[in-house]
Amino acid sequence: MRYRTLGASGLRVSEVVLGAMTFGEQGGVGAPIAECRRILDAYAEAGGNTIDTAVNYRGGLSEEILGELLAGRRESFVVGSKYTVTRDRNDPNAAGNARKNLRASLEISLRRLRTDYLDVYWVHMWDRATPIEETMRALDDAVRAGKVLYVGISDAPAWVAARANTLASFHGWSPFVGLQVPYSLLQRDAERELLPMAEALGLGVTAWSPLGGGVLSGKYSGAGPAAAGSRLDPGSVDERSHRVAREVGAVAAERGVSSAAVAIAWTRARSEAVLPILGARSAAQLADNLGALDVTLTDEECKRLEATTGFTLGFPHDFIAETSPWVFGAADV
């Protein structure tokens, strides 16, 4: 395991993040606490030090389990949690990114995790009803109070994150140092605006669902064993997804590694800013995913995988690339 700083901060994080959304059996398929312990121990033994959870994961059970499992070794980990999603559907102020929900959610997360601070506190997703100024100021207050060390934003438009950090710079508030987005061969939308923005502004990118909901592990396309208790109905996987998964499986077979390892390795090859989030329901599944650390894809392999996705950047990116010779003439490089 290697380490890097998260964005422009000095916080050292491992090159893959452990996602704890699977911790707990509440609300569907998940891992019991005994298996969660094995997962966390295996991750730590591999050198991993960064954990991602949220106030709403498994109805709060994810944070509670982590709090118990981290007892006595909390300082060895970079612990991040998120807020935004409603904690009480009957209370309009128990949701969103307003100061009131931020304060209440943070206190709940700290209590469940049995800690007096979070290394990273993430805005879970953009809340159109709350001014970004209010959110940034409230996050800065939490940092100044010592309850949060760094802040990040998840699932938001690039312009929102850029505007937020511009405001933070102008006012002397704590800026976002991280961006969290879905990113895989099946979902490359982040390449249009979000990844370029993160790279330009110095944000680390934690990528969730690098296996495309498990599709890229090959479990639905004949490139790997079918898994019990999967979140997806095999019949819901479209032909494009099957095509991409089969190509991932072909590259994996040539290398003698798992499809999951190849799919995760691709996310890391695309940008140095990307830190894949590994969400596992068993220690064996985590070990399979950690195989990505030993896989460095060639440019040819990356192009081969990407060719199956049918992805284009779209306007204005393709238009700018096409008209570049016209704009710059002989100066075009």
Automatic annotation (TrEMBL):
Top-level taxonomy: Bacteria, Bacillati, Actinomycetota, Actinomycetes, Micromonosporales
Name by which UniProt lists this protein: Aldo/keto reductase
Protein's UniProt keywords contain Oxidoreductase: yes
Keyword annotations: Oxidoreductase
Entry-linked InterPro entries: AKR_Detox_Biosynth, NAD(P)_OxRdtase_dom_sf, NADP_OxRdtase_dom
Domain NADP-dependent oxidoreductase: 16-307
Pfam families xref list: Aldo_ket_red
